[in-house]
């Protein structure tokens, strides 16, 4: 089960005086262990800024982030994190890149053999373990990056639009893989996205964020059955959830 996260009065500004830009907040939010929370909002609203603060890679201008009762004061090594551009190193194979995540934490990959094989099988990369990243499609590279982010069994997974540059069919396939991985081990997941459909398909709750400076306008419980396959996404309940969120962003003037 994943870690808990508490956001208390968190805000972030850049610059000072007349050049100051208020990027995000202030905001408060509690995320329970094992939740899948989507941060949904328009470009420039501070979604990624908040995610970086959750990772300890950016210090809040005010407020605090607490994980499992401990305040985050610097970069975290207990999480998995993915960005829109994967972090695979070109001189290592798929398996070598997954091993690298363990080696950086002084963990012996031999002790994770079963988990590595299971992850590779789950994301349909069987037979590509020895391929270099340049030999893979963009979608396959992102699948390898998911394995890399999850191999050390993190309690928290932070995802910054990891599917944003993929074509529609590949995005759909990897959403299915991600849903399967989350359902099996229930890490706490925070996903940054600007896709309403993606947020409704994958998350247990959606934090709707206003245009900059981003504030949490509304937190929506997504009460739909799992797995959220094509039949669920064609249902009246799914369509209604998407339409209701569209209405919020129309009110903001961004749709």
Q: How big is the Rg? A: 18 Å
The CATH superfamily of the largest domain is identified as: P-loop containing nucleotide triphosphate hydrolases
Could you tell me how far the N terminus lies from the C terminus, measured between alpha carbons in angstroms?
37 Å
Number of strands: 10
Tell me the series of helices and strands, N- to C-terminal: EEEHEEEHHHEHEHEEHH
Overall spatial form? globular
CATH third-level topology of the largest domain? Rossmann fold
CATH class of the largest domain: Alpha Beta
CATH-defined architecture of the largest domain: 3-Layer(aba) Sandwich
Could you please describe the fold and organization of this structure?
The chain has helices spanning 47-54, 94-103, 113-122, 138-150, 168-185, 196-202, 230-233, 236-252, and strands at 5-14, 21-31, 36-40, 62-67, 70-71, 79-82, 156-160, 188-193, 205-209, 216-221. It is of the alpha/beta class and 255 residues long. Helix content is 34%, strand content 24%. It has two domains: 5-78 and 156-252, P-loop containing nucleotide triphosphate hydrolases (Rossmann fold); 88-153, no CATH class. The strands form two sheets. It has a six-stranded mixed sheet, sandwiched between helices. It is globular and about 50 Å long.
Key features?
255 residues, alpha/beta, Rossmann fold, 2 domains, 6-stranded mixed sheet, 4-stranded antiparallel sheet, 8 helices, 10 strands, 24% strand, globular
